[in-house]
């Protein structure tokens, strides 16, 4: 097999929580499965029987189990803070955790715009309850549906030829309808369905697990929004399972961890500067403060959906350009 292939570890973890136990029960060696998941054993070095057994355990196809490296397990959005810190897992579930008025609906609209432009099928499942401002997101999808049957039929028709992005309100998770749809879709087509769940009431912030298991969590930051730094997605609190189990290149992971550490320190220093002034900081901390300030500003990015309301044009930053620029900032490069 191609050396550019690897296991879809995020999918395995999601479908088989006790993977080691399940693999052993199916006759596979635990060490072999572990080494395949971490990349110590390349896909090309695995027996076909082993891969077929893993696919059977996970209830997926070989095409779903085996993915390409360097972003094949993630959907690249061109949104800097997202692609670096909390990438969208292809075929996974993204949960928006936000208070009202911090830009989550705009983020959803932008996600739809960017994926639709890349050829994804896009659909929003309306909950039946009136939600102020949700039309800003629904205008960016190909289809809106009001019932589970409508959503199922649309996805079943499209899934044979295109990946699908499905957006929905948290109320459909609480009602159990989303889970019912996911179960029903297991037999409909083979291409991935990526689900984006939004909490329009802002209640998810106060709960430990507002959506159940997630592959990607975007925690919105009121403090960033108060300073008009959009998208106001926290680079510190937002997470993705794609950052685990060798799903990303080591370079990406190293840059992400370094940047997150710097931004944590910057947040601490910002509080001190606001209270006592930057001149009170040691020289080394002044450098950290300025780099963190520049990095935070870099992640504020114009959106395509905002072009009618703002003078800036929307920006797409490729993952490689994104990583390169973040390193330049952290190394003290000029703006």
TrEMBL record:
Secretion signal: which residues?
Answer: none
Q: Is the Nucleotide-binding keyword given for this protein?
A: yes
Q: In its keyword annotation, does this UniProt entry include Transmembrane helix?
A: no
Which keywords does the record carry?
ATP synthesis, ATP-binding, CF(1), Ion transport, Membrane, Nucleotide-binding, Translocase, Transport
The protein's matches in SUPFAM superfamilies, at most eight in alphabetical order, are given as: C-terminal domain of alpha and beta subunits of F1 ATP synthase, P-loop containing nucleoside triphosphate hydrolases
- Subcellular localization, per the record? Membrane
GO-annotated cellular components: proton-transporting ATP synthase complex
**Record's superkingdom?**
Bacteria
GO MF term (any one): ATP binding
* Any coiled-coil regions, as ranges: none
User: Where is this chain primarily localised?
Assistant: membrane
The entry assigns this protein to a family as follows: Belongs to the ATPase alpha/beta chains family.
This protein is called Uncharacterized protein
Q: Which organism is it from?
A: Paenibacillus psychroresistens
User: What does UniProt list as this organism's lineage?
Assistant: Bacteria, Bacillati, Bacillota, Bacilli, Bacillales
């Amino acid at each position: 097999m191609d050396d550019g292939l690897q296991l879809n570890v995020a999918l395995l973890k999601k479908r088989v929580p006790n993977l080691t136990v399940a693999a052993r029960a199916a006759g596979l060696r635990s060490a072999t499965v572990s080494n395949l998941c971490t990349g110590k054993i390349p896909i090309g070095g695995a027996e076909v029987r082993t891969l077929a057994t893993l696919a059977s355990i996970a209830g997926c196809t070989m095409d779903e189990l085996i993915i390409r490296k360097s972003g094949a397990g993630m959907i690249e959005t061109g949104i800097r803070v997202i692609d670096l810190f909390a990438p969208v897992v292809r075929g996974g579930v993204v949960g928006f955790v936000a208070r009202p008025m911090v830009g989550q609906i705009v983020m959803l609209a932008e996600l739809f715009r960017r994926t639709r432009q890349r050829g994804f099928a896009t659909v929003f499942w309306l909950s039946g309850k009136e939600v102020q401002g949700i039309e800003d997101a629904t205008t960016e999808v190909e289809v809106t549906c009001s019932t589970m049957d409508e959503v199922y039929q649309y996805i079943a028709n499209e899934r044979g030829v295109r990946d699908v992005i499905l957006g929905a309100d948290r109320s459909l998770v609480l009602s159990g309808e989303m889970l019912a749809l996911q179960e029903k879709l297991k037999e409909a087509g083979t291409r991935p369905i990526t689900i984006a769940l939004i909490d329009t009431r802002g209640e998810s912030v106060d709960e430990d697990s507002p959506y159940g298991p997630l592959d990607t969590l975007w925690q919105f930051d009121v403090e960033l929004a108060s300073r008009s730094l959009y998208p106001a997605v926290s680079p510190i609190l937002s997470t993705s399972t794609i950052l685990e189990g060798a799903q990303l290149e080591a370079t990406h992971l190293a840059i992400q961890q370094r940047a997150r550490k710097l931004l944590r320190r910057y947040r601490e220093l910002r509080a001190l500067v606001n209270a006592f002034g930057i001149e009170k900081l040691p020289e080394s901390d002044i450098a950290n403060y300025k780099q963190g300030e520049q990095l935070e500003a870099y992640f504020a990015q114009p959106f395509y959906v905002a072009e009618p309301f703002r003078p800036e044009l929307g920006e797409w930053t490729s993952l490689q350009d994104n990583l390169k620029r973040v390193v330049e900032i952290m190394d003290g490069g000029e703006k």
